[in-house]
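In this section we walk through a basic example: taking a raw amino acid sequence and producing a predicted 3D structure, encoded as discrete structure tokens. The instruction is simple. Fold the sequence below.
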Amino acid sequence: MNLNPRTWFGQKNAAALHNQGGGIAASIRESRALGPYTGVFDQWNTEPRAVSPWLYESLKEAIPMLDGGISRLVTLDGIIEVEGGNDRLVSEITEWMQNVPVNDLETGFQAAYASGGEELYEQGLAVTEFVYDAKGRDVIGLRVADSKGIHYVRDSDRMRVFYRAPSVAGDRRPDGMGNVEQILRGAVRASDRVTALLGHGYVELDPQQLMIAVHRPEADNPYGTSVLRSLPFVAQIILRMQNATGRVWERFGDPSFHVAYSTKNRKIDNAGAQRRAETIASGLATALAGKKAGNSVDLATGVGADDEISINVIGAVSEALQIEMPARHMLEQVVAAFNLPAWMLGITWAQAAGIGEPQSELVLQDAKTRFARRDPGLRRPIEAMLRARGRTWKPGDWTLVQRLPSLHDEVKRAQANFLNQQALMMQREGGGAPAGLDNQMRSGRQGRRKVASEEEGGGEPWAEQDKQLPRIERGTTDALLARWKGAKREVLSLLGLDAPAGDTFVFDLAQLPALLVEQQMLTRDLAAELLDGSMQAWERGAANAQADIPAALVANGPKSAQRKQVRRLLLRAHVAGRKSDWWDDPLFQAAVDRMREAIRHKLIAEGLDLVSGGVARTYRAQIVSALASGEFDGWNPVNVASALSARFDGGDYNWERLARSEIAAAQSTGKLDLYREQGVTLYDYVTADDERVSAICRTHEANGPYRIDDPAAPLPMHDSHPNCRCTIVANA
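The resulting token sequence is shown next.
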């Protein structure tokens, strides 16, 4: 060992054979740290809407979690349905919502709702146009716009909406706005902006035909806020991590090799050493090419005693990057941006026990809040459709509801129902009257079943002092419920569930025709019972009109000789106090018979529509369709029987409400028909003058009298609410 430090730095031997020359060669490669999305963040910055909205779509394509998060928000928005007190309108709206065409290939209002939700959360706004037919008598389609092509221009008194389908071809900028960027930035006069937009293929949309939703709008920015707004920087870091990981595995899958050849043989000069190294490298390249072709290759090297050959994989001994913790930190930012629990985005992180339930409650509350904000806009195409068809409605006739089904909700609902039944039982055992329910609760979701006979339990009292009307209402209700419960027994018997046996239930599609026949028979029987009760109520209305017609006739002149004779009979009987005499007069009874026949045909048609709608909503949608789709297949038969019975029982209140509303309406119609037949021109809307009378009815009473020939004049139930028991009285 040489211990003299002076010799360490001595002059090296310059002989070519003693020291082999060496060097370093550098190669430059393009750095694409973000992979294929390297240019996205430089080209499309995050200045709100002034530059390209394609940035957010690129983020969704680059990071699957962002795409999945938006889809999860749309799912949490639930399913849109319609409910209300007017069965005819509800049935018509439901049919339209199920069949309205959406864009080119989809059908149904739910498709437009979901597609609009995708645009809303990705871009911050959603615009849907509803299309009328050629005559403007119906809404025949919905078109959900690509929000990237929506642009607003603010006038002094309005906001104008322009649209052009986005295209990435033929423009300097991917959103097709390269030529009008200065317009959007407000660099030119406002009067020129519209001209420039129209000159570049934009079309102005009619705001009256638009359903617009905006997500978290800020100040005067009408474009809203994307849920991805805060994520571009986070996305860049995530993409760098993903790309770096891909590069590492790419090198392991297709490694680069370093070949080193050295020798201590003094007889080999530089040129010889170079040739030997090239020969080794060529042999290695041939071996690698053979392996890529799928061949087995053996590599042999022949070297001298003083030679060394080393072949190493470049990067094989490098330390692997630890990305778990920084990646989790970035993913936490994504979770925070969506305001969803991590497990809803597919991330399995450890969390405190019991935290999942309150997280779910918060998520559902967020969904309800978003729906409440969108609800007025969602109603617009439906209202446009009804107006185009000439329909009118009043508050409570129909409303949109958001279905957010969950097992947790069902358990809570069952517990609440049990507590209500328990409280009712205790009140009855104690001798107290059951507490009444709000008369506005007409949807059938009450904790306990509310019967029509509970006049003093919260429903409005009868304004007409006729003891027969409550009896007719009660009889009609009992008849409808008897038919409905009979259908339940028939269905359970048909399915073999009246005495459940076996381990599993499987619905046989061969039984479907029998169920549909049962539906037709049920509709016919229910319509017949409703018609019978309505006719009785109509006749009571005509009879009740006898007390107030004479006073009105004194103030109204005759219109025909026949009616003049009837009026004389009425007045003479009224003065003598013999009301039954004129009622039994053949001439008068002939007039009543004509009215009875006319109203009978009308009630047959209307009653069949009302009953068909109720049967379709409960029997066909919740029972037959559920069986046919296999919802109960594999269940225990006892559980299937219980579930079907519960669905039948859930429809009881529909028939109670229908009986109450139609009996009250028929009684008022009977009075109105008799007034019109006898030439009465005015009538008053009369309530029971009770604290339970609704504000709608009080308003109608205060605004009277009304002309009989006025089609806009209000009538009980038709223009008030389904639980109305008011009446009309001829005005002298």
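Looking at the output, two observations stand out. Residues 466-680 form one domain. The mean pLDDT is 71. In the next section we compare this with other chains.
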